[in-house]
Design a protein that fits this description.
2 domains; 0% strand; 124 residues
Length: 124
C-alpha cells in the first residue's frame, strides 16, 4: 500500500492503522475542508482575473468536472466578504479576515460602480 495514495478509502486507512473508518474521517475532515477551501479560493482568484475555465482546470491539474462543481460555490463564497464590506469594514480588514488578497476583495467591492465611483472608492 502506497503511503501517498490519495485514493485510499477511510476503511482502508483505518484497517492499516487499527482505527475505525469513522475515526479516520474525524481525523482528516478538517484537512479535507482546508484543501477544498484552498482550491475554491484558487478557482475564484483565477476566475476574477479572467482566466478561462479550461485554463483554470489545466493550471490546477483538476478535471474539468471538478472545476465545474466549484462554479456554484463561487456564487456563494463572496457573500460573507460582501456582507462585511456592506457593514463598513475596510477592504484591508475584510481581506485579512477571510485570507484573501486585497485585489480579490476590491473586485466585488467595485462591481457595478461607474468609473468615477471606482476612483473615489480607491481614493485615486
Amino acid at each position: 500500500m502506497s503511503r501517498r495514495n490519495p485514493k485510499l478509502t477511510s476503511a482502508e486507512i483505518g484497517k492499516a492503522i487499527g482505527r475505525s473508518s469513522q475515526a479516520v474521517d474525524t481525523y482528516v475532515s478538517d484537512l479535507r475542508a482546508v484543501i477544498q477551501l484552498d482550491l475554491t479560493r484558487k478557482v475564484l482568484r483565477m476566475d476574477r482575473i479572467g482566466i478561462p475555465r479550461e485554463k483554470i482546470s489545466d493550471r490546477l491539474r483538476q478535471m474539468r468536472d471538478v472545476i465545474r462543481a466549484y462554479w456554484a460555490k463561487m456564487a456563494i463564497l463572496p457573500n460573507r466578504p460582501n456582507a462585511d464590506l456592506e457593514r463598513g469594514f475596510t477592504v484591508t480588514q475584510v481581506a485579512e479576515k477571510h485570507g484573501w488578497t486585497e485585489p480579490i476583495v476590491w473586485s466585488p467591492a467595485l462591481k457595478g460602480k461607474d468609473d468615477l465611483e471606482r476612483l473615489n472608492r480607491l481614493k485615486w
